[in-house]
Amino acid sequence: MSLTSLPLVEISGAPRERGRQYGEQARDRVQRAMTYYAEAFGHSSGLTWEQVVQRAARWVEPSRAFAPDLVEEMEGIAEGAGVDFLDVLALNARGEIIYDTTFSSMEPDGCTSFALMGEAAGDGHVYAGQNWDWRDGVSGTLMVLRVVQPGKPTAIMHVEAGQVGRQGANSAGIALNANGLGGRFDDSVGVPQTLIRRRVLDSDNLNSALEALTKSRAHIASNALVTHREGFAIDLETTPGAVGWMYPTDGLLVHGNHYQAFVPPQLAASYRPGSADSLFRVPRAEGGLRAVAEASGTDEARKRIRLAMSDHLGYPESLCTHPDLAQPAVKRWATLLSSCVDLTTGDYLIAAGTPCDHEYERVPWNLYDGPHGEVTP
């Protein structure tokens, strides 16, 4: 199955078996991801992929202590894809590797995430989504993953091949959208973001989802916008230290790549946003998304969301980001995809590329075809 240019991968069963299914179906894309990051880290630090993988081994024990089942799933991915376990771990910890002081700096993910409550949407639905901005060279590694797992909600996610979690939603009506934040803290080793984010989407209730974010000790700072189908959203700026939070205003919540709730004390004296464009992406998204309240129905509401996320102020480093041809190919950024999840109906919509020139398409699975899928009237 495929969604325009994105493959759709469905896995089920016990952790290792799920991983094998994943690796077998995504073998080519896993190899493509390793090839891209070998080039990217070589460009930024001069290290070979083998050296990157050796250093990534420091995340084995924190990962196993936090989520042994997801380590098993990663081991299965490696078996299915015909690569080493540490290759897969490096793909899952690539955000942590970027911030590790033993590596030269690479910019973190961009992204602009949003949540719309019923009062902010003309059709009364609850929406969650984002523009996922990252290196354009990664586009050939993206996939949509559906995970059917015994005893847990069914999750649909959009990920880079080899990763066990990134952004998505589950059959309990919980959506997660995430953004890089930046800033180095200390040298202690924490849990990779892909595992924490997957734990959010493994949760069958809101409290468990938030505990996955507030009780874990992440290795890096990251923003998490959590939306619930019953009309609740909260944004958590998680760091290896303190956590900040925000709630919607008039039913709308938008977050970019700078601290909006607070600035961690470890960074406060010298903090500067890592992504200057985040400072205008957020208000531009807010302004565009306010128009969704005037939509006359669901089709129009979704069209207005797409229009809002297609804004080009600051082009090419805009809300809808396009590659800057003045940059080396390995460093060019783009909006890899735009997502819009209707938590009221269970429709999971993706524009496979920049939303200005890609329509939202519905993935062939409804979010609520899984445990806890009964929507509260």
From TrEMBL:
Residues 123-290 form the Peptidase C45 hydrolase domain. The keyword Nucleus does not apply. Pfam families: AAT. GO terms for molecular function: acyltransferase activity. InterPro entries: C45_proenzyme-like (IPR047794), Peptidase_C45 (IPR047801), Peptidase_C45_hydrolase (IPR005079). Keywords: Acyltransferase, Transferase. This is Acyl-coenzyme A--6-aminopenicillanic-acid-acyltransferase form. It comes from Nonomuraea diastatica.
